[in-house]
Amino acid sequence: MAESLVTPAPEWVSIGRACQMLGVNPATLRQWTDAGRLGVYRTPGGHRRFSAAEVAALRRAPDAHRGADLPAALVAQLQARYRALGHSSSTHHGWLAELGTDTRDELRALGDELLAELGQLIGTPSPTGRRTGLAAARRIGARYAAIAARAGVDVGQIVEAYVMFRRPLLEVLANSITRYPETGAEIGPIMRRAERLMDEVLEGITASSTSGRETPHA
After folding, report:
1. Residue in 130, 127, 129, 155 with CA at minimum distance from that of residue 141
2. Angle, CA of 134, 30 and 204, to the nearest 5°
3. Do 114 and 140 form a contact (C-beta atoms < 8 A)?
4. What is the distance between the alpha carbons of residues 148 and 162, in angstroms, rounded to a whole number?
5. Three-class SS of residue 77?
6. Percent over 90 (pLDDT), the chain
7. Contact present, 94 and 157 (Cβ < 8 Å)
8. Where are the beta strands (DSSP E) in the chain?
9. Residue 146 CB burial class (10 angstroms; 0-12, 13-18, ≥19)
10. 212 vs 55, more confident
11. What are the angstrom distances between the C-alpha of 96 and each of 87, 109, 129, 160, 172?
């Protein structure tokens, strides 16, 4: 049964559920709420909630994803690629297979954080926002190095893992040129921003590994 856009007892959904319904990442959803395209409500505990009816209406709108669709689509593809990579044999042999569960969980969470920063970086028109994202990427690189060092992983192995993370990113971006031909003008800047972000991650890894100091969490 169709739900009215105006109801005395609206159904509320979490940010995760709203992203799932719209097929976008949290960074894109925040951009849409900042732009006034979707209302956001706070619970007494400070959690964000969205009207299911408003989300459904936005999903049905013909131009709902126009403009913000490409960054969200790229991040969604990368999330799928990294999930598949996490279950592949390449991550379950050698030194990678020796990582403990807690270390794997830390690295996985950090990877999710990096993808969120990527989505924000390639989707924001703000130079200040891009600088903030690049600084965050460098800090994430330093945290990768710190976690790996605690696990007894040397810098060469850290860089090996970095290359493993970077390769799917470049492949997804390259494939997007043929997958989304109508957005050809957007791909070049997105690729440059993504490559810059990964450069900052590597800078953070190498700087932290060279200094031997663990960088505090941002």
Report:
1. 155
2. 15
3. yes
4. 11
5. helix
6. 14
7. no
8. 12-14, 41-42, 48-51
9. buried
10. 55
11. 12, 16, 34, 10, 24
Provide the token pair at 128.
């200040």
For β-strands 41-42 and 48-51, DSSP reports them as antiparallel
* 0.70 exceeded by pTM: no
Tokens of 199: 């450069």
The CA distance from 165 to 81, in Å, is 10
Task: Pull the structure tokens for residue 22.
Answer: 């719209």
Q: What is the pLDDT of residue 9?
A: 47
DSSP of 102-132: HHHHHHHHHHHHHHHHHHHHHH---HHHHHH
Question: pLDDT higher for 197 or 93?
Answer: 197
Q: 70-74, 174-178, 208-212: which range is least confident on average?
A: 208-212
Please list the residues that pair with 14 across neighbouring strands. Answer: 49
> 38-61 as b/e, with b when 16 or more CB fall inside 10 Å?
bebeeeeeeebbbbbbbbbebeee
What is the distance in angstroms between the CA of the first residue and the CA of the last residue of the chain?
46
Q: What is the pLDDT of residue 51?
A: 86
The CB density around residue 63, as the number of other CB atoms within 10 Å, is 7
Q: Give me the mean pLDDT over the 186-214 stretch.
A: 83
Beta pairing partners, 12: 51
CA 71 to each of CA 30, 85, 142, 162: distance values in angstroms, whole numbers, following the listed order: 13, 21, 25, 22
Q: Measured between alpha carbons, how far is 91 from 119 in angstroms, rounded to an integer?
A: 25
User: Pick from 135, 122, 117: which is nearest to 218 by CA?
Assistant: 135
| The token pair that represents 166 in the structure block | 């970077």
